[in-house]
Write a structure and sequence with these properties.
2 copies of one chain form a homodimer. Chain A is built from 16 helices and 11 strands. Chain A is an alpha/beta fold. In chain A, the strands form 3 sheets. Chain A has a 7-stranded parallel sheet. In chain A, strands 2-3 form a two-stranded antiparallel sheet. In chain A, a hairpin with a 5-residue loop joins strand 2 and strand 3. Chain A is globular, with a radius of gyration of 19 Å. At the A-B interface, helix 10 and helix 12 of A face helix 10 and helix 12 of B.
Chain lengths: 346, 346
């Protein structure tokens, strides 16, 4: 039996009754916060921050000091596993993430070593421990990783071309990434993560069949390998495929506790389809944060109403917070969720 | 009453019986063809080709000389309307399309003039006439335009930001684009286009409600304004939203003859949902053209079988042909559709 949780967010993840709809925001620790930008300037960039456990913990806590959020997510990146495999993650100025060593040939895959998290990713585990000390169990902390398919799209110059030209090689890579991810996420759980999220940012690039064969299959391998209970507490596991709205029912096959919804999905229709077989997380359009508090309140009301008087909704955006939205709009969003959601509960 | 058509593609668009599933391919006249690349080098770029009616007609016909395709699509671009409005379309080396004058303020929209197709877009109309002469009614010719929302994403630096910050301004722009598009497409029909396709490449960026309000609403305005019969022949009208698989039933509200499907949709499920209220066009993953003939045949069979023994399927890709796929794979695809589809008909 699982011990009872008092966290509103964990309760929602487990489809238990709550007093208000909990809310956290993907990329809530990020560039829209002036204090984040200051620290980034001082530290010299993202990777230096993410690999310093004290700093990563500090950044994780930054948004919690401003907003009454119901959850924290450890400050890190979905590409830490391939970096730990020795592929050499770096960020070029004003560009996305890049790798010094890309995966192209048989040998590139066969020589990849599954990283031991305690050796190669210890900075993430330490950041989780430090953050948990500060949080004093008042707010749950989410650990995360990228789905193997999504990580593959960054370490292969054209992952879809490989899918069609060398599918077996791609499968071997995905399998190694999945095995690494199981170890990594279990290490995060052991270090104190209260919930786990697997980000499949690029699953939506695939056909339905390829989504099953190249994305969902490896997500399932991960979800089956996770310690889903730790020290008597259930560890809710969230799966999120951006542009995956057509495949929500297919995703149930990996036995997620929670499914993430991007902003293109109607959450009311999703709730009917899923029919309480998983909790739902989402799904405000992140670009709405460029509008104004009144418009934000209206959209929050729309989503809460579409979900209705059911348990199992964790409010969030449908994707990460854009880098330059006004901080006061983020505050308005968090307040709107708490103040407008009470009437849908209890 | 419409006169009867003998074109396999038009019959499929109108959900009439055919002997084999017809096939054409988005961007079938394009960079994967060596003869196209040669001409492009000689002419000095895309715009010089598209604005020269003889050359545009020649390029339109290039793929038909190689493959037994069931349709041609006029060689042009979805951005010809804003170019004709004076915004100054150009293509920077190895970059996408750009405009000299972007839409940002009230004045930018209020000063926009609806272009008279016969004056400002006559090169497209002439290209249609020249192409039709060569085709001698053996193959139907498709005319096209971009949806107002999709065109807007190119003429505004961040259209989604404008959607949330200045929705009324965006609506005024979309309305002018829709009005221009009605005139333009009707002029294409008068010039001889046998069918019309409206490309909503970026509708999938929107929430369901915003898709209705900012994309579908203007597509509806266009579809209501089109001459859907010309010289006694019905002109089938195709609507295609990439990443719009969740909204297929919503699209029926604009009364399309045909709905385009991208590669993420299962065409069997789409056919059941649409239940013969429109024909379907699609939906092979364009990246599959990097694989090999055997794999291509298997995928064609999968799609034909998923659609089943129903009328109303025009085979196509789920998006344009990538620029450097092997020509022999395109040939294999066209042959596979014809040879494998006979058993699903008659």
């Amino acid at each position: 039996m699982s011990a009872e949780t008092s966290h509103r967010l964990i309760k929602a993840f487990l489809r238990q009754p709550v007093d208000r709809t909990p809310v956290w925001l993907m990329r809530q620790a990020g560039r829209y916060l002036p204090e984040y930008r200051q620290l980034r300037e001082k530290m010299g960039g993202f990777l230096a921050m993410a690999k310093n456990p004290e700093i990563a913990a500090e950044i994780t806590l930054q948004p919690l000091k401003r907003f009454p959020l119901d959850g924290a997510i450890i400050f890190s990146d979905i590409l830490m596993i391939p970096d730990a495999m020795g592929l050499g993650l770096y960020f070029a100025e004003n560009e996305g993430p890049k790798f010094k060593h890309m995966i192209q040939h048989e040998k590139d895959v066969s020589t990849l070593v599954i990283p031991e998290p305690e050796e190669k990713l210890n900075y993430v585990l330490d950041a989780i421990k430090i953050t948990q000390k500060s949080l004093e169990n008042k707010i749950p902390l989410i650990g995360f990783a990228g789905s193997p398919w999504t990580v593959a799209t960054y370490v292969i110059s054209d992952a879809k071309k490989m899918l069609f030209q060398a599918p077996e090689l791609l499968h071997r890579l995905l399998d190694k990434l999945a095995e690494s991810t199981v170890k990594y996420l279990n290490a995060q759980i052991s270090a104190g993560a209260d919930a786990i999220m697997l980000f499949d940012t690029w699953g939506g690039l695939l056909t339905t069949r390829d989504y099953h064969d190249f994305s969902l299959k490896y997500a399932k391998k991960i979800f089956s390998g996770l310690q889903r209970e730790h020290k008597g507490k259930k560890i809710p596991c969230i799966f999120f495929t951006k542009q995956g709205g057509q495949w929500l029912e297919d995703m149930l096959s990996i036995q997620p506790d929670v499914l993430g919804l991007d902003w293109t999905v109607n959450i009311g229709e999703a709730r009917e389809k899923i029919n309480q077989r998983a909790a739902l997380q989402g799904n405000l359009d992140p670009m709405l944060l460029y509008s104004n508090p009144k418009r934000i309140q209206a959209e929050v009301e729309f989503i809460l109403n579409a979900y209705g008087k059911y348990s199992g909704h964790a409010f969030n955006l449908g994707h990460g917070i854009p880098k330059d939205v006004p901080v006061e709009n983020v505050a308005a969003l968090v307040d709107a969720v708490h103040s407008l959601s009470a009437k849908y509960h209890g």
